[in-house]
Amino acid sequence: MLFFLLIFMYSSRMDEKIFKKITAIVGAAHCSRDIEEMHCYSYDSSKQTFLPEAVALPDSTDQVAALLKLADRYGFPVVARGAGSGTTGGALPTAGGLVLGTSRLNAILEIDPDNLIAIVQPGVITGEFQQELKKHRLMYPPDPASLKFCTLGGNAAECAGGPSAVKYGVTKDSVIGLEVVLASGEILNTGTRTEKGVVGYDLTRLFIGSEGTLGIITKIITRLQPLPEHKETFLLQSTSLIKATQLVATLLQQNILPCTLEYMDRTAIKLVSDLLPNPPGEDIQAMLIIEIDGSRQHVQEQVHHLKNLTQELTYCSLQHATSEEEVEEIWQARRSISPASYQLSKKKISEDVVVPRTRIPELVEFCESLAEQLGITILTFGHAGDGNIHVNIMTTDNSPEATTKALQAKTDLFHKVISLDGSLSGEHGVGITKSGFLQLELEETSIKVMRQLKNLFDPKNILNPGKIFPDHA
Asked: What architecture is the 109-226 domain classified under in CATH?
């Protein structure tokens, strides 16, 4: 029913003359105005749908530049799209226009093992890039849960993170240079191939996390890391939710630096318990996944320290994954939490809030109380090592009452996070689902300066209009 409603509401502003010019740029086989084809580019993981007026799949920077020059001339919107795995609506064509897909811009252009850098196009799949680097005993640390299908361009646009962020940082920490096509069609190169470079403003970080509102990324220069010699994986089970989350800060304070420190609450555990190497007992309220990497000697020293620290804690037990199969089972369980949550309800609100590590216990306790108060299910899991907790607010049905409760939970959650000196997003971005709450976190001057930057780079509001900034701000 929704699909036909969208077709009925669809009103094209892109005439045949413009589409012929798009076809001349990318070729007839790589663009479309067919309703069925456009519908494939109308949604993302936010579960919202907006039909574009056309889709184009360029295969070069020059083609991207030509498309943007066309958009600049005729004033139609352009929305860059990777794999559509974003959860905040960042790749949705809310104003119609052209969806510019990056699936053909998918080449690994260079891997330089000596200088520990690589140059890639935005359509490269993150997981495939990581697998290619392993052949050189190298790694690209950012590892979002969707790494098997998300793209490096999308990761850059949203500043994606992942479990390894506690030690290695997020996307902005691994990208040192970009090639970007501006709204005018001009090509801008930012950053360097070198570890140091302070000539002029740091434009690279300006574009990372800008959600395609300032320019379209066509090349990415990434910093690489040597693949660690050794890694050990542990699963800590706790009978106390609060004490388990308190332990996160304690581990780091005690000079234990894991490459992964993940958390899941009891609801999340129940959803994926069958996937774990050893199903947890009924009294388990929380789990931590702890991984330590580095040289074999360093890992052994850290593991010894970890075991000594936890062996006298009566509320938890530490299980050592002794095989690759067990490690894979643990990670399969962790990465299955979000999709498995739909067992509880067909509809949910997924948030990725961040608080200081020492405030995690307050956040999860608040979520438990909020769920009880509103009579709904809220599960929490995520990257405890950097305070980035994923909060899934489940709705019981599509009724107005259930929707109102879920939105109330989201609003209360955001206010609580700000009161804890936190942030509304750690890696998912703002898009359209959080734009109405921007003023909770950012002062008026910050929003004003950001709008001025948007106007400077994109004076005609061609690039991904309607994202990040609320209409009333």
From this structure: 2-Layer Sandwich (3.30)
Per-residue pLDDT reduced to its tens digit, 203-230: 999 999 999 999 999 999 999 999 999 9
Note whether 264 and 285 are within 8 A (CB). Answer: no
Q: Interhelix angle for 360-374 vs 241-253, to 10°?
A: 160
Q: Which CATH class is domain 2-101?
A: alpha beta
User: Amino acid letter at 139?
Assistant: M
Q: Contacts for 114-118 with beta carbons within 8 Å, 24 or more apart?
A: 115/193, 116/223, 116/224, 116/225, 116/226, 117/176, 117/193, 117/221, 117/222, 117/223, 117/224, 118/221, 118/222, 118/224
Question: What is the mean predicted confidence (pLDDT) over 85-97?
Answer: 95
> In this structure, what are the phi and psi dihedrals at residue 288, rounded to the nearest 5 degrees?
-125, 135
Report percent pLDDT > 90 for the chain. Answer: 91
The rounded distance, in Å, linking the Cα atoms of 187 and 255 is 45
Task: Give me the phi and psi of 5, to 5 degrees please.
Answer: -65, -40
| CB contact set of 371 (below 8 Å; sequence gap of 6+) | 377, 378, 409
Return the beta strands (E) in 268-363 as ranges: 286-294, 316-320, 347-354
Candidates 387, 364, 163; CA nearest to 262 is 163
pLDDT of residue 471: 66
CA gap 184, 457 in Å, rounded: 8
Q: What are the extents of the domains in the chain?
A: 2-101, 109-226, 229-343, 345-429
Q: What is the largest CA-CA distance in the chain?
A: 74
Question: pLDDT (tens digit, 9 = 90+) per residue, 141-186?
Answer: 999 989 999 999 999 999 999 999 999 999 999 999 999 999 999 9
**Is 70 exceeded by the pLDDT of residue 3?**
no
Q: Per the structure block, which two tokens stand in for 333?
A: 């369980």
Q: What are phi and psi of 316, to 5 degrees?
A: -145, 160
Angle formed at CA 264 by CA 129 and CA 43, multiple of 5 degrees: 55
Assess whether the region 229-343 and the region 345-429 belong to the same CATH fold: yes
- Residue 92 to residues 44, 101, 191, 215, 375: CA-CA distances in angstroms? 7, 12, 29, 16, 32
Which one is predicted more confidently, 470 or 57? 57
Structure tokens that stand for 470 in this block: 């609320």
Tell whether domain 345-429 is in CATH 3.40.50.2300.
no
Q: Which two tokens stand for residue 242?
A: 């609060």
Class of CATH domain 229-343: alpha beta
Q: Tally DSSP H helices, then E strands, for the chain.
A: 17, 18
Amino acid, single-letter form, for residue 200: G
